[in-house]
Amino acid sequence: MSESGRFITIEGIEGAGKSTCMQLAAELITSHGISLLQTREPGGTPLGEELRDLLLSHRHTGMSEDAELLLMFAARAEHLRRHIEPALAAGQWVLCDRFTDATYAYQGAGRGVSVDRIAVLEQWVQGGRRPDLTILMDLPVALGLERAGKRSDPDRFESENLAFFERVRQGYLDIAAHEPQRVRIVDASRDLAAVQQDIRRLIEDFMREAENG
Ligand code: Z5A
């Protein structure tokens, strides 16, 4: 296995099944004796988790798009400096529930913030750091919302309307179309066994490629 760690992210709209995917991916990776940092965005650090609370809370309904974007990147800056970069430098793998693709999808496609503005922050905060593999759990918005809707107490994002999530989904699909090598789409509308089979294959292929250099 190469000495530098690998950075894997999992993305998707509301109710896509990211949590389930994270769990399976983590089990597969650690079962190969690889040390893994499992984390999430926004969040992953004490400051990031506080920012997450602010971002998701209904106390801040109507927050400006720029404030939302900057808070996402503030949480990300802290996350990268404190956890992600040190882990990767130490040879650990990092598995993150959402990362910057979510910013392009939610703040960009969803809220209408320009791609150029997001790209400036991405470069500033991340330098050249990008995920090595991104699994995009894709499914029709109505199905995702139906699955997620079984939860009580929707947060500020979960309370957005269908049109918003349609734009977010398309935003993700556009990223995948531009970066098919990095972003692998899993059809998350199928039953759990079929979805998990795809995730298993993607992670195992990726581990094999990492082993070979
Ligand atoms: N956000 C942003 O705007 N910009 C950014 O840069 C970042 C984030 C990083 C919080 O993220 C919010 O932050 C997010 C975008 C924004 N808001 N939204 N929407 P989050 O990741 O915590 O939020 P979330 O999308 O609500 O994640 P979640 O609650 O963890 O959902 P999920 O992981 O995709 O779904 P799940 O809990 O695994 O599954 C949902 C249900 O479906 C559950 O009951 C499962 O048992 C069921 N399920 C899962 N798979 C299946 C299959 N295949 N068949 C049947 N049922 C299934």
Structure characteristics:
single chain, 213 residues, alpha/beta, Rossmann fold, five-stranded parallel beta sheet, 8 helices, binds ligand Z5A
**Quick one: biggest sheet?**
5 strands, parallel
Gross geometry: globular
Overall pLDDT level: 95
Give Rg in angstroms.
17 Å
CATH architecture, by name, is 3-Layer(aba) Sandwich
**How is the quaternary structure best described?**
single chain
Our estimate of the beta-strand percent is: 5-15%
Structural classification: alpha/beta
Name of the CATH superfamily: P-loop containing nucleotide triphosphate hydrolases
Account of the protein in words:
By secondary structure, the protein is of the alpha/beta class. Helices cover 55% and strands 13% of the residues. It is built from eight helices and five strands. It has helices spanning 18-31, 46-56, 65-89, 100-110, 115-126, 141-148, 162-178, 192-211; strands at 7-12, 36-40, 93-97, 133-138, 183-187. Strands 2-3-1-4-5 form a five-stranded parallel sheet, with helices on both faces. Helix 2 packs antiparallel against helix 3 (65-89), helix 3 runs parallel beside helix 5 (115-126) and helix 4 packs across helix 7. It is globular, with a radius of gyration of 17 Å. The mean pLDDT is 95. Bound molecules: ligand Z5A. Ligand Z5A binds at residues 12, 14-20, 41-42, 72, 97-98, 102-103, 106-107, 147-148, 150, 157-158, 188, 191-192, 195.
